[in-house]
Write a structure and sequence with these properties.
Elements (H helix, E strand, L loop, with lengths): L5 H5 L8 E3 L2 H14 L9 H22 L14 H28 L4 H25 L6 H24 L2 E3 L4 H19 L8 H4 L16 H30 L6 H4 L2 H14 L15 H24 L10 H12 L1 H4 L10 H34 L7 E3 L5 E3 L10
Parallel strand pairs: 1-2
Antiparallel strand pairs: 3-4
Helix pairs in contact: 2-4, 3-4, 3-5, 4-5, 4-7, 5-6, 5-12, 5-15, 6-9, 6-12, 11-13, 12-15, 13-15
Length: about 425
């Protein structure tokens, strides 16, 4: 009942991480900082401990934000968030990026680089993605809106594209502008600006902000708000990343004399899974409220994020173990049932079978969240156990097994560079 067959486990020995980062900011500013920052960590700290510490900071930021805005209404709903919460989110996201960047360096310092770290890092990134979408949308004063849903789709699409590209090319490719580098710094800046001016600042028109409303010709353009403009920028980013990722995949497929069109079919699982979630959100108003306008909106997005984390987790697992690409995820059936039930008034002209009122709808959403959490938790537990047992390592301890099967502290070779 596990995720890795005995044959696939053998392929773990063949795995070697490959990455390309063309970011100028990363090369000349961030990487020198990360190289120094990792030296502050003792060699007895496991790389995965650093990764989990970064995610824990994000969890704290997420909990703090919803302590002050449990209804996820932002300033549009009259909620005045303390300024320090946004500054905390900004610092927390920067720390997450830093911790996420140095875990690989720590792995090389301690001699623990390998597929387990790749899986663990990817899994934390997948969970952080949805949490940051929710927090950033609140900071942008979007709250419960289709713009927040669009942000979720766009951000998850970028993450899926990166994983899809790595599966086909064998390496993680970060371009001159990427989400893990420049994208994170932009979001951190958004938090900081919201801390100074408040989320309502982002409702300011772009032309008004640039003082162009009195300039001839330009003042004929719509004065789109700053948050709407940021959403348009995000859509452009998805389109750019799609063509860039496919270009890299196509180059790799041509080099190996394989079909260049077949990988495009493997984008369909994301389209299907995202489509199911959006279908559930678009159910008609058969009573006084719709899901997207209720307090269930954030739990729903969290359930969606956990299902996505399970989906891309299986993709990266297939990559590191040389298994076939995972086309299907059974949890889609559960969400599809919820989506169809909610849309029965539109489909067959009758009320939903279960989601007939706010209480039943809450049960359906929170049950979906619980099932998604258990499913992803089971995936993480089984995969970590399989890899650690097979490779004779520990997930959160810098140690290895000797030839007699006894645990020994791992000491890097004295001649190794502290990368």
């Amino acid at each position: 009942m596990g995720y890795i067959s005995p044959e696939a486990l053998q392929n773990l020995h063949k795995y070697a991480y490959k990455g390309v980062d063309k970011s100028i900011l990363s090369k000349y500013v961030l990487n020198p900082f990360w190289t120094w920052f990792v030296t502050l960590w003792p060699l007895w700290v496991a790389p995965n401990t650093i990764t989990l510490s970064g995610l824990s900071i994000v969890f704290f930021n997420f909990a703090t934000l919803f302590w002050y805005d449990p209804g996820y209404l932002a300033e549009k709903g009259g909620v005045l968030m303390p300024d320090w919460v946004y500054f905390s989110c900004s610092i927390g996201l920067f720390l997450y990026q830093s911790f996420d960047a140095i875990d690989g360096k720590q792995a090389r310092r301690t001699g623990m680089a390998g597929p387990l770290g790749e899986m663990f890092d990817h899994g934390c990134d997948a969970m952080n993605t949805t949490l940051e979408v929710i927090m950033a949308s609140q900071a942008l004063n979007l709250g419960r809106s289709w713009w927040t849903v669009a942000s979720q789709v766009a951000t998850l699409a970028n993450f899926y594209l990166t994983t899809w590209e790595e599966f086909h090319t064998g390496q993680l490719y970060l371009g001159v502008f990427s989400g893990p580098v420049e994208g994170i710094l932009i979001i951190a800046a958004i938090y900081a600006i919201s801390g100074v001016y408040g989320p309502s600042f982002w409702d300011t028109g772009m032309l008004t902000f640039l003082h162009l409303t009195n300039v001839p010709i330009i003042n004929q353009l719509p004065d789109m708000s700053l948050n709407d403009s940021f959403m348009a920028f995000g859509a452009f980013g998805v389109a750019f990343n799609l063509q860039a990722s496919y270009r890299n995949v196509r180059r790799a497929r041509l080099a190996s004399k394989k079909s260049t069109l077949q990988p495009l079919l493997l984008l369909l699982p994301f389209v299907v899974s995202a489509g199911i979630q959006v279908l559930w959100l678009t159910h008609p108003r058969y009573d006084n409220s719709a899901l997207i306008n209720s307090s269930l909106f954030v739990p729903f997005l969290c359930a969606w994020g956990l299902q996505f984390a399970h989906q891309v987790g299986r993709m990266i697992l297939a990559h590191v173990t040389s298994q076939p690409f995972p086309w299907w995820d059974w949890i889609w059936v559960w969400s599809l049932v919820g989506a169809v039930d909610a849309n029965l008034p539109m489909l067959v002209g009758r009320p939903p079978l279960f989601q007939t009122n706010e209480t039943n709808r809450a049960i359906a959403v929170y049950l979906t969240l619980a099932i998604s959490f258990v499913t992803y938790g089971r995936f993480c537990t089984l995969v970590i156990n399989d890899i650690t047992n097979f490779m004779g390592i520990a997930c959160f301890t810098v140690r290895k097994k000797d030839k007699d099967g006894n645990w020994q502290e791992s000491v890097p070779d004295s001649g190794k560079k502290s990368l």
